[in-house]
Design a protein that fits this description.
Elements: E1 18-28, E2 32-41, E3 45-48, E4 59-64, E5 68-78, E6 81-86, H1 92-102
Antiparallel strand pairs: 1-2, 1-4, 2-3, 3-6, 4-5, 5-6
Length: 112
């Protein structure tokens, strides 16, 4: 019997991504606390640009402003980059508050 991550959210990579510069310490089951740099963020997930030692399906827990701790799974890897999908979608009002916190320059924010 095959096991793995079974996520209920469909592939939403076309969702609006917001560039951010957000260092986090993620909790990883095997590697413990792992430093990561979040390069972009959407309500469905995020991308990091320093994905050493991660594999597809790996689970991490990160802490974001507004929503606190949230679980995410590695969906794709490409070189040093990795894309994660949150275990749940962040509500739009909470997501916009996160972007306002992480991306203080209004010229970098996508139009709402």
């Amino acid at each position: 019997m095959a096991s793995g991550v079974n996520l209920s959210v469909t592939d939403l990579r076309k969702a609006a991504r917001h560039p951010v510069d957000f260092p986090v310490i993620a909790e990883h089951q095997k590697h413990g606390d792992v430093e990561m740099h979040v390069a972009n963020l959407s309500a469905q997930g995020f991308m990091i640009d320093d994905a050493k030692g991660l594999g597809r399906g790996d689970r991490v827990i990160i802490r974001l402003p507004i929503v606190g701790r949230i679980e995410a799974y590695v969906i794709w890897l490409s070189g040093e980059r990795a894309g994660f999908q949150f275990e749940r979608i962040i509500r739009l009002d909470d997501f916009m508050s996160i972007i306002d916190t992480l991306q203080p320059n209004p010229r970098l924010r996508r139009s709402r």
